[in-house]
Amino acid sequence: MFCAHDSGLYSWMYLVLACGGRLVSPNGTRKEVLADRLTANVTFFNRDIKHVMADQRVIYYADAQTPHTTYPDSIEVLQFPNNQTEKHFPDGRKEITYPDQTVKNLYPDGTEEDGSKEIRFNTGQKDVHTADYKRREYPDGRQETCYTTGPTGHRTESCVSRVF
């Protein structure tokens, strides 16, 4: 295949792809640009696949068969095999639609629709912040809760609770 280009600065590989063609890298990744020069398919060495469509959508299939579509307006949609769908918006918000069609919105600061916030630590601890209380949950089942009204509660695995 011959591709004329007025600049000698481009490599042979770039010219082949710019005119529509196939390139295989040393690690096994294959890139194919179709004849319309707007559509490209990339097959990575780990068998993941990326399609770049003429309308600028990018669809990425992981080996786990999870399509990840990026639209020109920067919205990303992930579709999981269990029918869960996640939309990631440019402002950092995420909309999760579960298989039972329940929808949950998560905001960039970690809050959810109801204003609650859940923080998970690598120690296994979890903080839950709501308008009414802040609770720390420990891996051993203990919980400490601070209520906005003042009293603090402590709960252990045996569900014994006391206010101090």
Automatic annotation (TrEMBL):
Top-level lineage group: Eukaryota
Entry GO MF terms: tubulin binding
Domain Centromere protein J C-terminal, first and last residues per copy: 72-100
Gene Ontology annotations for the cellular component aspect, listed alphabetically: centriole; centrosome
InterPro entries: CENPJ_C_dom, Tcp10_C_sf, TCP10L/CENPJ
Pfam families: Tcp10_C
One GO process term, biological-process aspect: cilium assembly
UniProt family annotation: Belongs to the TCP10 family.
Name the record gives this protein: Centromere protein J C-terminal domain-containing protein
